[in-house]
Specification:
Length: 339
């Protein structure tokens, strides 16, 4: 079994999309949008008898059951198709299983939903040679109301039973482990009771050490408090009103809160924001360290504004910066040489 069957499932559905985007539903899939995918979904569910699996995906993802008379309610769910649009375009890697299941329905990927794909991969050879499974698939093609996932789940339970990992066995083993732990505790308690003098001596030594340590901690805490108090008082006297900061276009500067600014961009000092600096990036800039982004961006028309840390945009406070991605680097920076 692969380490991450869900990743394999997403890859398989994506490959099916690459084929189907030039097929019968070219109009919807070649350049997918939320509106196109929503329309294709309605057309497929309206014209075809769907399996119980497909109907369950529809209900789980969109939050309502499929009903031919509730088209207006369905149309309101357009944002539910946004992850599928970005998935087909290769912009995101969706974590929502039901979104990928719906994507599988739209491109006609047969090994769906994910649970069916997972079981098929786990017992591929046995399923292909199992007459009961094959006969159920044939029957399923005649009667769409049969839930193929239920059939495959039954098959999986049988295999798990053969491997001796049924829930009852697991619980029995857990119960035995609990009993063993209790027995060990009882033995330990008996050993402790048999050595009262040693324990008493240990407790006395421990209490003395604890009292000494507690006294030292109190003295240290008092000294630190005095130093901090004097330090804060000195800072306040030397820098009485330096409690604000101002963005100068490239970085923040600490300023007096009473300073008058033409664009009124004086704000309270924010320790999480004060070290932010604007960055000029090019095709040789280091964007990642240890596979983590060290550059953060916000879009500005047809370009990127880049900064050295996460936080809100210093000039557009409602906009929060995002970690740079390879997609954004390829789109905006790859062909931009350093000047």
């Amino acid at each position: 079994m692969p380490d991450n069957p869900f990743d394999d499932y997403k890859i398989a559905v994506r490959k099916k999309y690459e084929i189907e985007k030039n097929g019968e539903y070219f109009v919807y899939l070649d350049n997918p949008t939320r509106a196109k995918l929503r329309k294709l979904c309605w057309e497929l569910f309206q014209q075809q008898n769907r399996t119980q699996d497909d109907l369950s995906v529809f209900s789980s993802l969109l939050g309502l059951p499929f009903d031919i008379n509730r088209r207006n309610k369905f149309d309101e769910q357009i944002d539910k198709f946004r992850p599928i649009e970005k998935y087909f375009k290769g912009e995101t890697d969706p974590a929502n299983v039901e979104a990928v299941n719906m994507a599988a329905i739209l491109v006609g990927f047969e090994a769906r939903p994910f649970n069916k794909f997972r079981i098929h991969n786990l017992y591929r050879d046995e399923i292909e040679n199992d007459d009961s499974i094959n006969n159920s698939e044939i029957s399923n093609s005649k009667d769409k109301s049969i839930d193929s996932t239920l059939i495959l789940d039954t098959f999986l339970d049988q295999k798990e039973s053969e491997r001796g990992i049924e829930k009852g066995i697991v619980k029995e083993k857990e119960h035995e482990e609990v009993k063993e732990n209790e027995r060990v505790k009882e033995i330990t308690i008996e050993e402790i009771k048999s050595k009262p003098k040693t324990i008493s001596l240990f407790v006395n030594i421990k209490e003395k050490l604890f009292d000494t340590l507690k006294t030292k901690i109190k003295v240290t805490a008092l000294a630190v408090a005095i130093v901090l108090s004097v330090g804060f008082a000195a800072i306040y006297e030397l820098f009485p009103k330096k409690g604000c900061m101002q963005w100068n276009g490239n970085n923040y500067e600490i300023v007096d809160c009473d300073l008058k600014a033409a664009d009124n961009n004086i704000e309270l000092l924010d320790p999480n924001q004060i070290n932010m600096k604007r960055m000029k990036v090019c095709d040789t800039t280091v964007f990642f360290k240890n596979e983590k982004a060290v550059v953060f961006y916000a879009r500005s028309r047809d370009s990127l504004e880049c900064f050295n840390q996460i936080g809100y945009h210093p000039e557009r406070k409602s906009l929060y910066l995002k970690p740079i991605t390879n997609h954004m680097i390829g789109k905006y920076v790859s062909n931009k040489p350093c000047k």
